[in-house]
Amino acid sequence: MPAYNSTSHPLISRRTALEAGSISLLGLGINHLDALRVQAAAPSKHQTAKSCIFIFLSGGLSQHESFDMKPNASDEIRGEFNPIATKIPGLQISEHLPMLAQRSHLWSLCRSLTHGSNEHSMGHHIILTGRSDIPVGFNPSRPMSTDHPSIAAIAGDVIRSRTNLPPAIVLPDKIVHNSGRVIPGQFAGRMGSNRDPWFIEASPFHSKSYGAFPQYDFDHQRRGGADQRVFQTPHLKLSQGMTQGRMNNRISLLKELGKQRRVLDSAGQVESFDRYRSAAISLLNDDKVHYAMDVTNADDKIQERYGKNSFGWSLLMARRLIQTGVNLVQVNLGNNESWDTHGNMFPHLKDNLMPPTDRAVSALLDDLEDSGQLKDTLVVMCSEFGRTPKISQLARVYDLPGRDHWGAVQSVFLAGGGIKGGRVVGKTDKIGGFPIDQAQKPENFAATIYRALGLPKTTYWHDDVDRPHYIYEGEPIPGLT
């Protein structure tokens, strides 16, 4: 199979062409969204009312500055931040996460997630797919058709949709390197690009600005240049000149085409025709969908609680999508490598990254808890890796010190979805460099998400030649439920 390439022209079947043409007959305009893909509900798909919000911090959150502080270590290890107490006796986290500290009864930590890569692309692939092994033909410069499928792609394929939206969505952007290359691990890989997760691209690409724009945007290397990005919430509308009357006429035409579909495709499996058509129409008329995506026009008090920035808007959108019935929402908090703090680490974490994250995640937990949905919604937050125990400085690039890549260990934040609050699984050595108790693999991390989604261990997806591929490659992280 060819490598993933956003500019290539995929081969499509006659049935798929008819479905796509049927949607275009409606004259739909769907700004900032990938092509509408709602698949037929196959018998092997699972109906579940459970959900997950997977918060991904591209770049690598430092465990020493967040959830696994080492205040008694030497200065070159401990860093500049101080720990603060949480509501749980003996549990301390960074002083720059005070709102989460007050909600520690709602969340737990795994301080011992480990894998073998210190490279960004491979690290992304490992965590986003929940697979430690390197796939055949892996290319760090671009996604390949032989890559392992992402957790989001698998969830989108094996779960039956409960709404006219797909069961799995990624927002507010694809993870793209500042050079413009697309990072592997986000897509369906060997499942086939037709099963890529659905991306809501509300955050425009920027090569030199990172973080929660417009309030907290910054540049790792302080190169200057204003960030003019606008968080563009997707909206669904009839295209220009498409009146309701004309739309109704086209719907009638679609019905006539529907009468002929047995002739057009005698092979069966034509249910997706109706799924595409009904989804395209209902998206235009579903107030819940518009409500979920229109976050920049939400009540000011709600926006202030989450933060009027890309982090806050993204998590507010995720929370609303879960409300509408979407099962898994992956939220990339910051564009590619926003958390890659090789230098200028302490001011950038303190001033630009931790405040909007602390506020937005806390607001999300409050909303889910107040609505009673937290018990059935897993919130999980991690990066592709952690940071080195020892502080270093690349003086030719950065004004101030930081930490480098470290796949050997990172901390994972978990709440809801059956997770009991106030627990800590795993332990690292005295410098926060390696797990010394209950080491967990990415396969355990992925299994924790699949379990929270209500997927049994017998769940599998089919490849193009109908071979089953079971999704569980490990056991869920123990000691959390």
Automatic annotation (TrEMBL):
Coiled-coil spans in chain: none
Q: Which Pfam families match?
A: DUF1501
Q: Which PANTHER family match?
A: BLL7424 PROTEIN, DUF1501 DOMAIN-CONTAINING PROTEIN
From the Swiss-Prot or TrEMBL record, give the protein name: DUF1501 domain-containing protein
Tell me what organism the protein belongs to: Gimesia fumaroli
